[in-house]
Amino acid sequence: MTAKTADGPELMPETQELATAPNFAAVSTILPSGRIQTQMIWVDAEDGKLVLNTETHRAKAVNVERDPTITVLIRDEKDPYRYAEVRGHVAETITGERARAHIDELAEKYTGGPYPPENIKSERVMLMIVPERQTFVDQTKGVAD
Predict the structure, then answer these.
(1) What are phi and psi of 134, to 5 degrees?
(2) CATH number at residue 108
(3) Residue 141 carries which DSSP code?
(4) Looking at the whole model, is its pTM more than 0.85?
């Protein structure tokens, strides 16, 4: 299998696997101008949703507050020919102590230590993403169409 696609709100097992490992995600949101903005950030999965953690003042947080449409592409850092694309929407945001604790969990996963508090400029916010369409690609088994 080189590609597998699914519609609906359930995370595919392959997407869950990539999101919970220390893999980076390219996150695309829609700017007020209608143009697309993409940034590389840490990713996680929780309760069947993809989870991103950012700050309330950052463009991606402001963008999804206005338009919850989002695309997340998670690349397997051990094998860049494996990746999952998730098109969906931000269904919920979480701030406060839970979001602050979550960034420490992500920092531990990606760097082996806590998130430096001096790096926080506003308030942490978790973006809970419900998939609408997912595609998992494994090009180690051939080229995906």
Answers:
(1) -130, 145
(2) 2.30.110.10
(3) G
(4) yes
